[in-house]
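INPUT
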Amino acid sequence: MITNASVVIIGGGIIGTSIAFNLAKLGVKDVAVFEKSYISSGSTGRCGGGIRQQWTSPMNVRLAMRSVELFKRFKEDVGMDIEYYQGGYLLLAYSEEEMADFEKNVEMQKKEGLDVELITPRQIHLKFPFMNLEGVIGGTWCPSDGHANPQIANIAYAMAIKKMGIDLNTHTKVEGIDVQNGNIVGVQTTKGYVKTGVVINAAGGFSHEVGKMVGIDIPTHSERHQILVTEGINHVLDPMVISFKKNYYVRQTMHGSFVMGQSDKNPALGNDLGHTVEFLEEMAPKMVHDFPFMNHLHIVRQWSGAYNVSPDAQPIIDEANDVSRFIFAVGFSGHGFMLAPAVGEAVAEMVVYGTSKTMDVSNLKMNRFKRQINKEKNVV
Amino acid sequence: MKVYQSAIVGGGPAGMMAAITLAKHDVKSVILDENENIGGQLVKQTHKFFGDHAHYASTRGFEIAQKLESEILKNEKIKVENNATVIGIYPNNTIVYVKDGKEHKIQAKKLLIATGAMEKQLPFVNSDLPGVYGAGAVQTLMNEYGIMPGKRFLIVGSGNIGLILAYQLIQAGVEVRAIVEALGRIGGYEVHANKIKRLGVPILLNHTVVKAIGDESVKGAVIAKVDDKFRTIAGTQREVVVDTIAISVGLTPLTELAEQAGCEVKFIPELGGYVPIRNERMKTTNEDVFIAGDLSSIEEATTAMIEGKIAALEMAREINNIDVEDEINDELKTLALFRSGPKSVKIRTGLEKMGIKTPIIAKPVINEEKKDIVGKLRAVLECDEEIPCNSCEASCPFGAIHIGENLNSTPVLDATKCTGCATCVNACPGLAIFVMKEDVKEGMVTLGIPYELLPLPQKGQKMWGLGKEGNYVCDVTVEKIVKYPNKTNIVYARLPIEFKDSVRHFAFPKKESPIVCRCEEVSLERIEKVIDEGVTDFEELKRLTRVTMGPCGGKNCKLVVLGILSRKTGIPISELSHGTSRPPVKPVEFSVFEKGGDER
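OUTPUT
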């Protein structure tokens, strides 16, 4: 562990390691990353792995589109095959009202340059004849959406930054941030003290707690989302399929297994990572209904992870006003993995240049909540 | 025409034992046997026999045959007619046989028919292709004539014959791809099954062969799952590449000669099909005709010999009018003891249908476990099924193994008396006894296993420690090899203490890296490569390679992976993180949750 770092990153998840990777690419290598457990132990390693650009907020669409560009070259850039597959995203609509929303979204998304289109039940049936589309009146389809293995992506970043000379410390917990006269001077960890002038809060589920270390009240909270995986079978399902109405997402991994989840009606708050049998009882009937071939598919494992939720379900990317050089990239509300390459790029640029250059992320600042809250709707 | 006091048709274990017993009671006999040598099926049995020490337990089948044959050949009261094919039994106990191309006729006062059994056939598509054999035929070719009919076998049927055949094939250097068993459980003894499982042969339950593939000869087989009525389940068919299919789906008694001799038969499936009706003392409905061995009920050589003895004693009593009641009762008791275990329930049921009750003299008991002494060189008994065998108890020079009156009871070890001499390891026909001595300080264990394969390893050699299902567990170092005259040698090797209960076979390392995680097909090489790349956290290793992430949830390989990680990093297993257990513990279908919980 180094004792002097120009930047300390708290959190070795996909956001933290992506920021470190981009810092190293910009030539900043005396960086220390602290991960309290192992790589991919937090929300990254627990997520569904979807990479989607179909959002209701233009900012999310732009961030996601930039991420897709970077995911496409991930293997060359970062050095590992992360099972990235552009199999598309299919969003299902069940009511005229939902369809009307979808139409508005598609119009906006097209304006942002996304290859998205409305799709009829007949067209869905022709593409995916194994689906039971009872009740579906339409949907949206974006072929450049896709998915990847989030755990491998996280470990890929981790291995890459270690090779690039960055000091990655797993099983090392940050105990406090040393602030003197409004300036950060160091970070105390379970493995020792490191002097630094810049701290990045990429603590995912623990972003609020890390903010408190410097006296900043970040409006994020964590809630539990459950997920399961099945045995692997031959490849049948290209896209991630989402139904907001029925409350599920499902995709088939390159390994052949199906990964799927939902939002619990009253999700457990905090970082409780337990699981319930009710989750299986709720998932099973709706999955078997929409995908009848799953009836005899075996569930292999269930687990859960924390969504770190912000008031508008969009990320908060900002730098503190009262404490010098405390930067945070938090509150991803369940879609941090898919945005990580673009966020890493933007935050690294903020550190080096004072502001992000590749794309403007200024409307993700925390003060937006003082004006009004425009909630991102496309969240499962 | 030559008239004998008694004639025996069939020189297998029952016939041989009967001839010896008759001679002992001053009755002359002739054995008519169609083979070049007497011995019957024993001559091709290279495995050690189970049973009572008094009845040749721990002795290999062909050696039992040799012992009995030499006793018979030097006994002047017994005449042996080899290469004699009995073609019929005619009135007045006239037996007609062909020898040297000529008809021969003899008569006898009393007859023992011990013609044994033949293998049942199994109909499937292309079952007439060259390359489809009965298991007995393979044994004859291999063990009597030294001819190997194939290189890659599928065995159909997991009774003792199928299991033993698989073991013998592997000893001969042949690959056994799988054993398929239509029932939901293994037919033969557990210890026989364990022997081949740890050599890596899968036993596929609820499976059968549906087709042999090939034009001129067998090139493969189609196997499939079956339901409880043995119907093939559609969509479960798959091909296995084999050049030989050995069928061992049971035996059926050869009753023809008995029927010609006027013995009434009855169809009793539990005994193997049509069997001659007989009384407790092996006498049929024909006053002069007795039977013994597989002809009376499909069982095994030990009981065949006892039946031969009982039949002979009763014949001698009638011929010479002597009192052998005590001897007969002793043998009946021995037979009843043999049959008192759970594995003999079929025989007992079958005999009851014939009106013969098998008295339960003493119920087999699960003997109470005794305290183990970790760190002492001692035997480890892994014989948990109630089978009629007490060779370990009988072989132990120190009285450290207890079975008790009923030889179907399971053995227990008194570790305080055990010296680790390994005599029992060598004697056990099931290869179910091992020796071990832990070196707790070093975190290692020395494990001695019975080893009946060639070539033998060398001292100091690195080998793979294989688990109970032939899976790679860890590397081991051979410490010593102890050779025994009965060819059950013992190989001692050193391995990490964590694997003392999982490693049960040592195999020479293969070029191809062993599969550690069988669910996700992850090899040792891949795991080691990822560790070498710097991933030393089990959790990360797991996510990168998928080890332990398959349907078994790591139940099979997690400890093995931790062992590899420990070996590579020098961190003891106890200090490594080992992941989190998550439901479901066993994979469940979505349909299980169809109704969505009990309240709906």
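end of record. The longest strand of chain B covers residues 102-113.
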